[in-house]
Amino acid sequence: MDSDRQLDNCAAVCFLAGDYADGHQQDRRKICSNCDRPVKVCLCNIIPSEPITTVTRIVILHHPHEQRHKLATVPVLSKCLDNCDVIVGRRLRYGDCDILDSLHDDAHRNPNFTSRAIYLFPGADTSPSQEINHWKSSKNTVEMTNYVLIAFDGTWKHAREMMRASLSFLSKFAVQVHLDYDIGNDGGTMFNSDLILRKEPFSGCMSTMEAVARCLRILEPNGISMARRCSDEIILILQLLKTLSGDGFDRLGNARVLVRANNSFQIWKWCMSMAEKCTNMRQLKAIHAIYITLGLPRNTYAVSKLLDFCALSNSGDLSYASRIFAQVQTPNTFLYNALIRAYSSSPQPQFSLNYFNLMLQTSNAAAPDSFTFPFLLIACANGSLEGEGKQIHSWVIKNSFSASNAHVQTALIRFYTNCKALDDARKVFDEITDIDVIQCNVLMSGHLQSGLAKEGLSIFQDMLGRGVGPDEYCVTTALAACAHLGALEQGKWIHEHVTKSEWLEYDVFIGSALVDMYAKCGCINMASEVFESMPTRNKHSWATMIRGFAVHGCPELAISCLERMQVVDGLKPDGVVILAVLAACTHSGLQKEGRGLLDEMESLYGVTPEHEHFSCVVDLLCRAGRLDDALKLIRRMPMKPRASVWGALLSGCRKHNNVNLAELAVKEILLVEDSNEAEEDSAYVQLSNIYLAARQCDDARLIRRRIGDRGLRKTPGYSAIEIDGMVNEFISGDVSHTCLADIHKVLDLAYLDPNFDNLI
User: Fold this and answer.
1) Quick one: how far is CA 447 from the chain centroid?
2) How far is CA 510 from CA 2, 203, 485, 492, in A?
3) Are residues 60 and 88 in the same domain?
4) Which of 4, 104, 621, 693 to pair with 565, CA 20 to 30 A apart?
5) Where do the PPR repeats lie (predicted)?
6) Do 173 and 101 fall within a single domain?
7) Model pLDDT for residues 637-693, shown as the tens digit of each residue
């Protein structure tokens, strides 16, 4: 009996996992003749081999619509109980059931008839319904044992209709009762049941099967043993039925049949299939429990299925993955790679290196491959482990992985660019015989993110010279470099290249990059022309065009885009678009429009103002000299201001020489928890300049000393100009330009011009 019970529990766990057996769609139409359920979810082996004998007679009116419902519980309940009558119909009448007819006749003949029949239906406070425990303990029924329980099976609407239609018959001999908020065998109350099979119309509903089981625990003379049987047999079946409507594991074959047939291979196959379909750790742990409980073979393939989800899924659990890994005696390369990959992007990337060392030291069945090193290098980059990354590079060279494997080569370039070691990244790139577009993209992006747009653009030109065709991402990166440098002619050439290319798709990303490039290179009309000709536009495209109008002093056009994007493209402005419009108002000094947009953006567009929006309006007010209003706006912010908001106020203080407010802004910046070192350094530099402008030299000297103690070095300013397709950069303090002497001669002549001030 205990072994059978254990098998039942195993089956229940299997149901929690779900069914993904092959050919399910073909078999789902086959109906079991005994339990009237699809054969793949047949419950015959869970139904008690001998029906439960009860003193209480159960009569259930079963609505016709419920006969073929996949979650109908009455057909299964009738198989569990030997004293249960099921009547299919919409109302109870005389002649439907012998026991009800007999009770009706007794009540008609005997005016002092005491009813032993009850019909179960939840009643409102004003209804005549009695709580079932209270009814049973009344003096008229306390000696009774052979009760008759009547229940209505259907949806809430159907059950109410059936009860009302049967009331003229039942009211002659039966009493309406309802269940109290008693603690159920499943651990919850009737209003917090874990066995709800369908969506409840309101709190307190339950299946007919659960309601009958709870009533039997109250009505039967052997209540304790009946409660145990209800739990062991009926409640277990309800748990299985509930899992049939579960979240992703909703169709399962009967695992108990396979266990009894000793078909462990089929269960193992099922477990592997189900592990691939997991959506959360609860499901995976249920599968793992089956695996351990049934003693299934713990081979590497099986563990890899479990480990794959734990380590690589977004809803996985790395600590659980590590425990599974520790149970494997001889893990292979795949298992090591799974954990190395998972930890490389986790908050603990150094663990990837730990598993790599473990692989080298203890494993005879595993060796690093071309998938191991990219993840190790990602871990080194994410963990700022530059020294360890260089050691990995040495190991790669020593074992000849870098010469021919594109994945490893790309990973090395990405590692060095992430560590800002661009010379090393370029060296790896130059050593590659057959470069591909991905490697070019990584190197270009690395240079652009480090502010080296000119070098990034040269990589693009080098790529074309080596016969590598660019993709859409590569083109957008090159256009971003042109925009950064103001390289209009090169940007035009890329535009022409895109237009003539047969393999490049002129998509929304390239179109937006072209708009940005032309706008930043001073060609706002060309930017607008490209924007209007784009086949598709998104919110990013509109934000780019609005920013272009902003920097070119066209605030009216920028503001009009808010309406146009909704009418023309059916797009609702988001926070980025509104920020671009606020920037346009700031550049043009439109205080009323900017402040009004900030106040109404949530009501008009459903966008909650963020720190960036407040920073922009603070900047707008400061440019107009309204520093006190800007401070009031900051004080009224619904969230704690970030350093960027106080930084906008500090910039305004510098322009208007407000020392007191500047000191307050710097103090607040230093108190902000999420401020970074660059923001704090910038605040010190600006405060020093404000002191100098106010002729407070001692205070300025004190700040300069503090800046020196922090090791801050001011980034030199630079400018760039494109001449004959070549970008020339001029950096403050740089004397390395090849035409330096000629440049100074021209500047000396310019200084002699009486209109020099107007030329600047």
Assistant:
1) 31
2) 69, 54, 18, 13
3) yes
4) 621
5) 436-470, 610-640
6) yes
7) 999 988 989 989 988 888 888 888 988 988 888 888 776 777 777 888 888 888 888
Which residue range forms the structural domain that includes residue 740? 720-759
Q: N- to C-terminal Cα distance for the chain?
A: 98
Burial class (CB in 10 A: 0-12, 13-18, 19+), 508: middle
Q: How far apart are CA 15 and CA 12, in angstroms?
A: 5
Mean pLDDT for 425-435 is: 88
Provide the 10 A C-beta neighbour count for residue 63: 21
CA distance 489 to 496: 11
Q: 719 or 167: which carries more pLDDT confidence?
A: 167
Distance of alpha carbon 513 from alpha carbon 511, whole angstroms: 5
* HSE of 356, CA atoms in CB hemisphere, 13 A: 26
* Rounded distance between C-alpha atoms, residue 685 and residue 704, angstroms: 8
The Cβ-side half-sphere exposure at 626, using a 13 Å CA radius, reads 16
Q: What is the model's pLDDT at position 737?
A: 66
- Is residue 102 domain-shared with residue 221, that is, in the same domain? yes
Residue-by-residue DSSP string for 49-65: SSPBP-SSEEEEEE-GG
Same domain? For 153 and 46 the reply is yes
Please state whether beta strands 718-723 and 726-731 pair in parallel, antiparallel, or not at all (unpaired): antiparallel
For 320-362, write each residue's pLDDT tens digit: 888 888 878 788 888 888 889 888 888 888 999 999 998 888 7
**Dist. CA 628–CA 587, nearest whole Å:** 20
| Six token digits for residue 526 | 């060309």
Same-domain pairing of 730 and 692: no
Q: 127, 172 in Cβ contact below 8 A?
A: no
pLDDT in tens, 71-106: 677 888 888 888 999 999 999 999 999 999 999 999
Residues 567 and 572: their CA atoms lie apart, in Å, by 9
